[in-house]
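Researcher: We plan to redesign the surface later, but first we want a full-length starting point. Tokens attached.
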């Protein structure tokens, strides 16, 4: 995690960096810091806590004006979130300042070696090891770019490093391995950052850096090499969203804004998926039809909310393609010696495209010969880059730490993939596929209908502000929707919330239910008679234990009315598509309850948006 930025140019450096950090704060907010150079001296300001603390410090003690600087917002991995452990870190001789994202795995050995050479450390972080090493290398060679290459060659693990040299006022040098870094191409100014959001106010032209590359920026040049100094090939691209997409637009929280953006995000994800012959086409899927037909197993790999999207996908993909489909937590995948080979098709789902657990899982899968399709929301991120194919979700930037439009668009992209595979493998006729796509195209309107009734859900949330425990139930695709509802409440409201498969309740968890426990139940559409009726029985079971039942049910389904304390009406959709509408009230509920509790909805405690450590 951690967000980092470097700038060189004529603008107010401190302002550019602070604005950039504000847009990167979703990556971590344990501390923030900035370093600039003025008259051959480095000046550093850093504070534990959110960026607001650093802003306060800079208001009373401003930094001198400068032409280049670096900034950092931290999600702590090594060392407490204190002022001392905040970045940037200086080398012992004060000549370089460095910020780091990632984990340096051989930090202990390097630190011992540097200490033996008389270097005095000021923090407990692994990051300072990189700063001290860079300082030593710079003292030896006198050139920051060369010193950066030499430093990177000695580091193990994952890192993005950005550094400035007090004696070189026109240059910022950055490097990456297993951690994100993009270059912002300006006019008479240039940027490096973890994410384009950091410089989107200034430029929409970007360069994506490859693995093990070093970039040197000056106001008028960008020079990229590998760690050995050989010129590297890079890819320049235009960012197709602008600064307004990363603003709150009148909402109190980014999360609430993103919940309300879902109709647009889903519509954008569905755009342009047909060719002129009326065939479903995913032009980013560059795996030949023969290979897709040969696949005898699909393994979906993801974490957290994206994993729940994968659970929904399993039901749809198996139903439409009849290919066995497993869903696996990325953090568990490679440790269980999974049975995969060249006939396995892996599907990874990641909003950020940088989640380290997922990245490591796909590397492992590809080593075993599997082909990997990524479903991702972040153009040019590491996961799509390291996959054989990618389906972008086009949800626009997701800033709120809790994923919302990320989830619904991931589910929609999975449906598209399932239908595409069904088309290629001939397990569904064209008219059947078109009928499902026609229903998918109605989803933005259906989600809007749920959003139009947000006030009812908000009132329910405010009425439950003193409740401590919540249970969420669902069957079939309603089960992952229930898990997602519980996760949203845990991460935002910090309350005990559990999701269960409705039929599993009687095998143990029902013991926790009493009259103080609200139970949210996702009821399947009536079209699936058996499934529907079983869930109605499950509602009666918890009602009999005194639970307050909140029932999410399709419009016109009166069968649950006798057992529901609160009814949340959903538009009528077919069973497989229902999670897309069912999850929306659960997102609204968690957002509103957390707001009522006074929690920071966009930056919940202990979390970060982009989890780039394992
Ligand atoms: C929860 C949430 C996380 C992410 C998970 C994977 O609201 O956002 O559980 O879904 O960390 O992140 P990505 O999708 O970026 O790989």
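Model: Full-length starting sequence:
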């Amino acid at each position: 995690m951690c967000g980092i930025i470097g700038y060189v140019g004529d603008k107010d450096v401190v302002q550019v960096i602070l604005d950039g950090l504000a847009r990167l704060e979703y990556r971590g907010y344990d501390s923030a810091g900035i370093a600039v150079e003025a008259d051959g001296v480095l000046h550093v300001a850093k504070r534990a806590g959110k960026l607001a603390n650093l802003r306060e410090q800079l208001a009373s003690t401003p930094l001198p004006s400068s032409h280049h600087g670096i900034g950092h917002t931290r999600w702590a991995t090594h060392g407490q979130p204190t002022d001392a452990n905040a970045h940037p870190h200086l080398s012992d001789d004060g000549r370089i300042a460095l910020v780091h994202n990632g984990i340096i795995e051989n930090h202990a050995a390097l630190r011992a070696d540097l200490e033996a050479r008389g270097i005095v450390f000021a923090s407990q972080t692994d990051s300072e090891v990189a700063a001290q090493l860079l300082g030593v290398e710079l003292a030896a060679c006198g050139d920051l770019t060369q010193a950066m290459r030499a430093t990177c060659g000695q580091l193990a693990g994952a890192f993005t490093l950005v550094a400035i040299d007090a004696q070189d006022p026109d240059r910022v040098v950055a490097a990456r391995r297993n951690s994100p870094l993009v270059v912002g191409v300006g006019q008479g100014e240039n940027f490096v950052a973890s994410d384009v959001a950091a410089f989107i106010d200034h430029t929409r032209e970007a360069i994506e850096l490859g693995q093990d590359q070093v970039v040197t920026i000056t106001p008028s040049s960008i020079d990229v090499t590998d760690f050995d100094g050989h010129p590297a090939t890079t890819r320049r691209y235009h960012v197709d969203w602008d600064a307004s997409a990363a603003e709150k637009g009148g909402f109190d929280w980014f999360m609430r804004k993103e919940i309300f953006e879902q109709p647009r995000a889903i519509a954008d994800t569905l755009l342009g998926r047909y060719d002129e012959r009326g065939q479903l086409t995913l032009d980013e899927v560059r795996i030949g039809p023969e290979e897709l037909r040969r696949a005898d197993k699909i393994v979906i790999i993801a974490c957290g909310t994206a994993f729940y999207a994968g659970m929904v996908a399993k039901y749809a993909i198996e139903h439409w393609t009849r290919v066995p489909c497993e869903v696996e937590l990325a953090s568990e995948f490679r440790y269980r010696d999974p049975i995969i080979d060249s006939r396995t098709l892996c599907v990874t789902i990641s909003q950020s495209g940088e989640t380290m657990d997922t990245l490591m899982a796909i590397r492992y899968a590809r080593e075993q010969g599997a082909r990997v399709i990524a479903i991702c929301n972040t153009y040019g991120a590491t996961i799509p880059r390291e996959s054989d194919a990618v389906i972008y979700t086009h949800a626009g930037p997701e800033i709120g730490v809790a994923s919302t439009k990320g989830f619904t668009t991931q589910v929609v992209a999975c449906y598209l993939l399932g239908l595409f595979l069904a088309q290629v493998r001939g397990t569904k006729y064209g008219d059947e596929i078109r009928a499902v796509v026609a229903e998918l195209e109605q989803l933005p309107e259906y989600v809007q209908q749920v959003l139009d009734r947000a006030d009812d859900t908000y009132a329910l949330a405010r009425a439950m502000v003193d409740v401590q425990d919540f249970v969420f139930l669902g069957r079939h695709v309603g089960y992952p929707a229930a898990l997602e509802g519980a996760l949203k409440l845990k991460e935002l409201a910090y309350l005990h919330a559990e999701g269960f498969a409705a039929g599993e309740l009687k095998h143990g968890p029902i013991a926790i239910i009493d009259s103080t426990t609200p139970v949210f139940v996702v009821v399947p559409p009536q079209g699936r008679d058996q499934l529907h009726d079983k869930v109605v029985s499950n509602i009666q079971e918890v009602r009999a234990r005194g639970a307050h039942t909140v029932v999410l049910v399709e419009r016109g389904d009166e069968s649950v009315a006798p057992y529901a304390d609160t009814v949340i009406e959903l538009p009528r959709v077919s069973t497989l598509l229902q999670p897309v509408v069912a999850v929306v009230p659960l997102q609204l509920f968690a957002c509103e309850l957390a707001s009522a509790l006074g929690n920071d909805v966009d930056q919940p405690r202990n979390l970060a948006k982009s989890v780039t450590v394992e």
